[in-house]
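Hi, here's the filled form for the chain we discussed.

Project: internal
Contact: R.S.
Residues: 59
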Amino acid sequence: MDKIISYIKHSRAELTKVIFPTKEQVRNAFVSVVVVVTVVAMFLALIDLIMSFTLSHIA
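And the returned structure, exactly as it came back:
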């Protein structure tokens, strides 16, 4: 039982050290992820289009 109580006390102490992001930081990270994913998806779609066009004209 002492180990459990000690674990909880240490967990609470560690949680006081955590710095949670602000709403603005979360929003900026979200927008960055959406932009990067969109750019990568468009790039891959373009590569796929070029390759399929090339292969359809070869065969």
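Let me know if anything looks off before we file it.
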